[in-house]
Fold this sequence. Notes:
alpha+beta; Aminopeptidase; five-stranded antiparallel sheet; four-stranded antiparallel sheet; 5 helices; 9 strands; about 35% helix; globular
Amino acid sequence: MTQTVITTERLYLRQWQPSDFAVFAxxxxxxxxxxxxxxLLAPTLSDAIAHKCQQLIEDNGWGFWAVCLKESDAFIGxxxxxxxxxxxxxxxxxxxxxxxxxxxxxxxxxxxxxxxSLRFAFERLDLDEVVAFxxxxxxxxxxxxxxxxxRNTQKNFSHPFLNTxxxxxxxxxxxxxxHQWQISMLKNRG
Length: 190
């Protein structure tokens, strides 16, 4: 499959490289980065996730891409698209997600890369809609969802892989349709 590289003003989203894995493992072992995930990830599990991302991009031409800064070529995390797990109450669907190294938070990189991922989803994959979800208490990710034009469905759900008593169990579900995205693109141009 042809490998897609997506470029934005400051970033490019590309296939994973072996040099990305160590930085990704450090991110996944960082309590701040993983604050809204059930646990920190050991390097072997982190590498397995990176390999899976790499393989899905190889097979499909899209997925959770490695995100790099144009100016320095530094790997800063992952952003992209993934088929939602079959156990999710909104499956089948394609989700958008992100995880960036904390040194790059607060600079608009996640929003910039997520917008590029939505463009790919709607222009290249011709999807009808894209979803996003996170723990209710993760307001930072919800702000990114709102910035990229997604709307809260008001259909919170218990994450199927977490005990309902877990602090992170209750999740919000956001959506954006291709039509809503097209309208937001027209507004942003005007």
